[in-house]
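If your schedule permits, I should be very grateful for your opinion on a structural question. The matter concerns a single protein, recorded as an amino acid sequence and a row of backbone structure tokens. Could you please explain, in whatever detail you think fit, how the structure tokens follow from the sequence? I set the record out below, with my sincere thanks for your time.

——
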Amino acid sequence: MSLLNSLINLKASIIKATAKAESIAIITHRNPDGDGLCCALALQELINKNPHLNRGVLRTIDVVLEEKAPSLFDYVQAQQRTRIYNEQMIYQLIVVLDCHAVERVGRCAPLINTAHETIVIDHHEITQSETIINSPNTYIDTSYASTGAIAFAMFKQDIEGLDKPAKDYVLTNLYVTLLNDTNIFTNSNTDSKVLSMSAEMVSLGVDPSKTVKQYIPPRTPAYYRFLGQCLATIKTYKDDQVLLFYSNNKMLQENGLDSDATTKMTENLKGLTEDVRVVIYAREIEHKRYKLSLRSEEIDVNKVATALGGGGHKKASGCEVEGSVDQIREKVLVLIDKQL
């Protein structure tokens, strides 16, 4: 499949498609994060408020998710500005952000089948095991730290022309995509392009201190009790090269917490010794079904995730797997062992 080869061509495709579409849905991957979701919210606001994209036409521009947006993103009104997918939804134009594989879109995938046109924007690598969304308007550039970074590079001048409330909202969301996918500028993908782009956003009005404080949610004593239970499950394998820990729904219920408490759990293990080459966090999402977060500075965990129906980056990836923790551990260790 041929891809769009430049931001100029991508922007031209978006302008052309939005000009003729009376209904637009912006979607992202399952379990939306601070890149896919916040980039979607930024693009929704930009299309609504930018005359080059809107041209004064009143129409439907929805951000559609599988389920209610995480409360972690209340500071950008994520729940008020999104809709939950249902089978009756039909849109003329679908914009897919932060993923390019049908499997990762999840329950929203039928929206692509009924749309007149689809645009795909992503920064993840393509792997052979994925079913790529079939669209001639697909742009994938792995040199960008986040999908929001692609959007900023493409629409910077348009963002500058927005009124202050719209500009502040768009920029805040795009800044969050950088915070999310660089782990607040601590991951190895924090390069000169990331820092230059974040500086540009600040010069346009982003308050970095305020945005970081909003991005990091306040934690209750109940959260730290839950975290202690999770960390107590830590076990290592392969001569301490692989670390696995998990949480289940019973732990959440005992502490009066919801699934938002499991967000970015692997960040609590920053500073591990070099002996640990792979970190795996498994959180129960329903009986005998877990969502895995895989992190490594040394092996390609994306190969592991895609083999299990997920995807992501070489150093940070995820998937959902059926089975008990013990069964899942054995599946994952076999895949990791091939690279170790």
Notes: The mean pLDDT is 93. The longest strand covers residues 278-286.
